[in-house]
Amino acid sequence: MTTYLTTIGLILILMLGWLVVQRVYRLFARRHPELGPFRSEHGGCGCCGNGNCGDGACDSTHHKH
Known about the structure:
The chain has one helix and no strands.
């Protein structure tokens, strides 16, 4: 039973840690726009999820946060 609870706790900690990493990355991307647009975890620049890749949708004025 202890192993089961430890495993659940570790998975929860890992998931929460990943959320913290994503938040820090978004804040960093927002503070440093000269490094390019925020890249979503689905790939692309954050604008490509709606099918606008390749037509200038990933300009610095259109990136998502």
